[in-house]
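Q: How do we represent a protein-ligand complex in a form that can be generated token by token?
A: Start from the inputs.
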Amino acid sequence: MVNRSCIPIGASPWLNQSPSDVSILFYCEGDDGQLLQTFRQRLPDHVVVDWTSERQTTELHDITAAIVWMPPAEFFDNSPLIRTVYAFSAGVDGILQHPGLPENATIIRLRDAGMARQMAEYALYGVLYSQRQMGIQRLAQSKRQWVQNDVSAISATDTHVGILGAGALGLQVAERLALNDYPVCCWTRSARTVRNERVKCVHGQEALGGFLNTCRVLICLLPLTDATTGILNASLFDQLPPGAFLINPGRGAHLNEKDLLDALASGRISGALLDVFNKEPPPEDHPFWNHPDIIITPHVAAQSLPGESVNQVVNSIRTVERGDVPAGVVDRSRGY
Ligand code: NDP
Ligand code: OXD
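Then emit the structure tokens for the protein with NDP bound:
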């Protein structure tokens, strides 16, 4: 949901400048130059300044906008006038925690950008893995055991899935799972109407307990905020049905890792599919690596598609230049 109160119309930092006056500071971790070049082609009326190679030779002081993914700590040091930050990501916890982020900068994030479909596939994989008890079978195979009697027929319709969050990603995940016959319920912060009658939605702290009690599989697709940090902890696990399965493609800091290990040891949780970690990659001696009931993926559950992501950022830049409010404006007080 776009919060239209974040950029007051007419307060755009661009309004008194023609685009050709406008430089945009660029840093996207891991870019081999391709993305930078694409932005330069798509914004021929702007100067896109590469922070990595041009910061020593370019006057950065007057720059008012930036395109970023995981910018270094010094990124904003010489550009105190940056007022619009185009985050090249869906999650904005990293940029919001950046020590140099100007206090009054507006952040505009990616919405979906090809990620929702991938996230739905990732979630479906995890849900099927749990429902069809693939963990038991994988382990048995590694011991050359034939475990026909240990695998029971549990139908999709009896496998209730709960999704923490029903945003750009969570909602599409919910719809895909519902299409595959899983009863799905989402939990959100505010009340919302979901048009798909096969997807239920509850909201608020008071609804959390009842929501958790039914989830055979729990998927975390929350943004990382003060309110959601550490939410996947022992007290939450205790409210799930015994043997529930956890899927976390949200953020590593949503999960209390020790509590998960304890819950796996006690059988409270039967297994977990984890894409994100407190430290990425986890240290070599991290207990998750070899845990028989944990599947690790390297933060690839959903990767933004470059074409769609560049389109979104370029459209947002044009929208802001017109003095309008683009989609994806982050509410900094909420943290997402
Ligand atoms: P959105 O901002 O679109 O949706 C967030 C959802 O979480 C909303 O439904 C919101 O509720 C809900 N929410 C936020 N805070 C709370 C709270 N305190 N209590 C209950 N519900 C809450 O985010 P996206 O769907 O775009 O992305 C979700 C997250 O997925 C990202 O922030 C990122 O961390 C992660 N991600 C991971 C990727 C990966 O590859 N592993 C790729 C991309 C994203 P409400 O509807 O009421 O606002
Ligand atoms: C994102 C991510 O937030 O890839 O976009 O995690």
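Residues 89-91, 304 surround oxalic acid (ligand 2) (CB under 6 Å). Residues 1-11 have pLDDT under 50 and may be disordered.
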